[in-house]
Amino acid sequence: MTGPGDEGGEVEGSIHRTGVFGEWCAGAGTGPVIEGRSPGGIRGGSRVCEGGSRVIRDESRVPGGSARVPGESVRVPGRSVRVIEGASRVVGIDFDRPRLEFAIKNYGGSGIEFRFQNWSTLPEGPFDIVLWMSAMHYEKNPKRVFESIRQVLSPDGVLILECGVVDRSGKEMVRFQRHSDACLYPTIDLLLEEFLRGYAVRRFYRPEVTPGDPVPREVFHCSPQRPIVNIVHGESRDGKSFFGSGFLAKAATKTYSIDIIIARIAKAQYHHTPLEKAIRDACDSESLLGIHVAIEEQNLSDEFANMLAELVSPSDEFVVFEGYLRPPVLTALSEKLGKFSVVWHTSKFR
After folding, report:
1. Is residue 150 domain-resident?
2. Domain region containing 289
3. Order of all β-strands in the sheet with 31-37
């Protein structure tokens, strides 16, 4: 897959299960935001015009390559859009009134609700796609916008970002004087390490210089970064604690010892739930294995997995569990965490 094509060229890629297609035409870079809920697939082709330099003609193609988005809603900031089919709700926003009036005049009959506003406050999500194109250099606080977008994206959503980037080291905003104005563009380090913190980013390496803009534009696919959970499990004396605490803990935002969690529950003054009581009654100062067996025999594996899963927040970056877990608990915990995080298992090779 490629990034934006050269003049008259095509761009490979596709969006699946989103009902959006349209025509984006270059404006002042403050074009309207489009959002909607889409139960179906793309119908028809997309045409993207940037001063006549790019045309996308094939069906279900978008700038920057493929982005599979398995959700129900669509949000497209950045350009004036002719129509979105398959969406049950479409809203366009712009804080350039003449361009908004142009959009209303030409596309007002397509079912789009147009609003005169900027992107300081975004409509309530979640949305599967955010498309912010050739507009970031007008925003004085891009990081705030990226944080707002991440809040309204669905867990599997994608921000498709097209922006001018200065390919040099260091973290700074570089001022460029253009034919009509002066704008600020981030260095690649500033964009990836600061502005897009909290996203998993894929960069497409075909920058394009457009007429009137001295800074090459690039395309990035950015997905909300999900927590990574590493469950270090195995038998007694396998070295789980040494590996988890000695190595993984240095990079982790949270670390949990299963043995310590169980011991705290057993020694607590109060025990309310069947799980807490089972751990208390099966506690043996010589070995914790009996507790794990009791949890499984009393059909409390799912409850134990729930309790462990609650220790992980969607805002966490890297969480480590280490300790012995019976197979039913390990499976249930992995399934529960897998709904909002990326789960890894680490065990000693035998």
Report:
1. yes
2. 228-346
3. 73-78, 31-37, 91-94, 113-116
Place of tokens 């990326």: 342
Which CATH number characterizes residue 261's domain?
Answer: 3.40.50.300
pLDDT, tens digit, 9 for 90 and up, residues 223-237 = 999 999 999 999 888
Average pLDDT, the chain: 76
In this predicted model, what pLDDT tens digit does every residue of 148-186 receive, in sequence order?
A: 999 888 888 889 899 999 999 999 999 999 888 999 999
Q: Mean pLDDT, to the nearest integer, of 291-319?
A: 96
- For the chain, the farthest-separated pair of C-alpha atoms sits apart, in whole angstroms, at 79
**Same-domain check for residues 213 and 159:** yes
Domain termination residue (choose one: 203, 224, 245)? 224
| Element spanning 306, H or E | helix 301-309
Q: Establish if 70 belongs to a structural domain.
A: yes
Residues 118 and 199 in one domain: yes
CB atoms within 10 A of CB 90: 25
CB 165 within 8 A of CB 215: yes
Burial of 121 from C-beta contacts in 10 A (0-12 / 13-18 / 19+)? exposed
Query: Which position has the token pair 């380090």?
Result: 189
Give 42-53 pLDDT, tens digit per residue: 222 222 222 222
Q: Are residues 32 and 48 in the same domain?
A: yes
Query: Which among 224, 246, 266 is the end of a domain?
Result: 224
- Whether 118 and 156 map to the same domain: the answer is yes
pTM: 0.66
pLDDT tens for 78-109 read 333 333 556 666 767 778 899 889 988 988 88
pLDDT score recorded for residue 337 = 97
What lies within 8 Å, CB to CB, of 198 at 6+ separation is 146, 147, 150, 224, 225
Task: Give ∠ CA 230-130-66 in degrees, rounded to 5.
Answer: 75
Q: What six digits make up the tokens of 206? A: 């075909």
| DSSP type of residue 232 | E
- Asked whether residue 3 is assigned to any structural domain, the reply reads no
**Phi first, then psi: what are they for 345, rounded to 5°?**
-110, 135
